[in-house]
Amino acid sequence: MTSAAAIPISVLDLAVVSEGSDARTALRNTVELARRADDWGYHRFWVAEHHNMPGIASAAPAVLIAHLADATTRLRVGSGGVMLPNHAPLVVAEQFGILEALHPGRIDLGIGRAPGSDQITAAALRRTSGPLSVEDFPEQLSELRGYFAGSTPIIATPAVGNGPPLWLLGSSGYSAQVAGILGLPFAFAHHFSAANTLPALELYRSTFRPSEHLAKPYAMIGAAIVAAKTDEHAQWLAAPAGLSFLRLRTGRPGPFPTPEEAASYPYTEAELAFIADRRSSQIIGSPDTVRSEVEELLAATAADELMVTTMVHDQEDRLRSYELVADLFIK
């Protein structure tokens, strides 16, 4: 049975822009969290690519990763992830080749196949109105890997010889199977798609082929965790995440709401059911509750690594939650 005390614990951050704040403050908060995570003993610190979302400031992972790596000393820093359909593979290879050359042994390149945005924004990023196709992803991925390997007609300096570990990210079975076939590490978004977690992990492990990168499967799961002194306070802090996701799914994204705003929102019964379903896979509570539920999750998934994402309004509450998790499973 996998135990949290025996595996690496990492951080996924979105540079959340909270109600009453701004993107500049959100990015400063991310840097502060990374420095504290470095001190607390977290293993990795990943940032995610999102676009056209007023509540998320991590639109350019490579730029943010460069700053975070410079602001920390030990953490592995990476993307969770770069959405490959949005970018020319050559550009991604050059960006992450530079990052790895500047911070050798500390950079991760996590790749996703979704655009991480709406179709209009995706078209603006890709400079084309053509539809996105799942079938294009393997070709894009192969091209990206070729630049790091130096096996293409284009010499992608400094990517050649400076290839960071490549991860595939997913919330379904597609990337799980690709990661298994290619012998790459796989990160699954349990916090986003809990119903698919076990099937995707089983598919990854059953299709895994040893490669120059890995001799055996290595699976990381992302989990939404909010820790506080009591269960009641943790639930209070976690409530805005439900409202934020509800607004996103109904086409009304905005800054991350306050707990007071979440408490006073006039939810319909359908909206309450939607939020309750999403929160059922989250881990929210006191240290004892968090310990128990994390161990239960790891026993079910046999994950090799746990990546924690904590979405709360106030920076101090977020720092305190990550510190409590570190006290439970790292220190």
The count of strands amounts to 10
What is the N-to-C order of secondary-structure elements (H for helix, E for strand)? EHEHEEHEHHEHEHEHHHEHEH
Strand content: 5-15%
Main sheet, how many strands, which sense, barrel? Answer: 8 strands, parallel, barrel
CATH class category: Alpha Beta
CATH architectural category: Alpha-Beta Barrel
CATH superfamily label: Luciferase-like domain
**Which stretches are low in confidence, meaning pLDDT under 50 for 5 or more residues running?**
none
Number of helices: 12
Helix content: 40-55%
> How widely separated are the two ends?
20 Å
Tertiary shape = globular
Mean pLDDT, nearest integer?
94
Describe the structure.
This protein is of the alpha/beta class and 331 residues long. It has one domain (4-229, 290-329): Luciferase-like domain (TIM Barrel). The protein contains 12 helices and 10 strands. The chain has helices spanning 23-40, 61-71, 89-102, 119-126, 136-149, 173-182, 197-207, 231-249, 259-264, 269-279, 287-301, 315-329; strands at residues 9-13, 44-47, 76-79, 82-83, 107-112, 166-170, 186-188, 219-227, 283-285, 305-309. Strands 1-2-3-5-6-7-8-10 form an 8-stranded parallel β-barrel, surrounded by 8 helices. The two termini are 20 Å apart.
